[in-house]
Amino acid sequence: MIMEELALPDLISLGKTRVQNNDGVKEYMEEQQRKLYEVFVKDVNKLTDLMEHTGTVVSGSSALHLFQPKYTALMLRDLDVYATEEFSEKVLNHFKDDKEYMVTNTVKWRRDYNSSAISRVHKLKKDDKMVDDIITN
């Protein structure tokens, strides 16, 4: 498929050429997102519902993987999800309970040397798959 060879700016340009192309680009990006999430979870719809409800977002190399042409895309190593403190337990439990990930480490940020909004990172693992659940305040 030609869209696999296009970078994000080219996909946007293609989408602007006509309504059918815009619909095709949208479907392609949704399919790419689904494929990404399938690497880490079985029930993609449940994950996307959780993300929409909690405002959780994907970042890092996984997010870049969505927007790069297939031939230059970064290899998927892990999934970085950002959640707010308000929904931290809900997101963490989603991966622990529903997806059978185990917490291997929790890193707490020290405010005295880091001005980041990150309060902690839960590192989760299931087989060879890793998820970083990054909690912000």
The number of distinct helices, counting runs of at least 4 residues, comes to 5
The general outline is: elongated
Indicate the radius of gyration in whole angstroms. Answer: 17 Å
Main beta sheet: strand number and arrangement?
A: 5 strands, mixed
Strand order of the largest sheet: 1-2-5-4-3
Distance between the termini: 41 Å
Structural class: alpha+beta
Helix content: 40-55%
Write a concise synopsis of the structure shown:
The chain is of the alpha+beta class and 137 residues long. The protein is 45% helix and 24% strand. Helix 1 packs antiparallel against helix 2 and helix 2 runs antiparallel to helix 4.
Describe the structure.
The termini are far apart. This protein has a 5-stranded mixed β-sheet with strand order 1-2-5-4-3. The protein is an alpha+beta fold. It contains 5 helices and 5 strands. Helix content is 45%, strand content 24%.
Key features?
elongated, 137 residues, 24% strand, alpha+beta, five-stranded mixed β-sheet, 5 helices
SSE order and pairing:
Blueprint: H1 8-17, H2 19-40, H3 44-54, E1 57-59, H4 61-67, E2 79-84, H5 88-98, E3 102-108, E4 118-126, E5 129-136
Parallel strand pairs: 2-5
Antiparallel strand pairs: 1-2, 3-4, 4-5
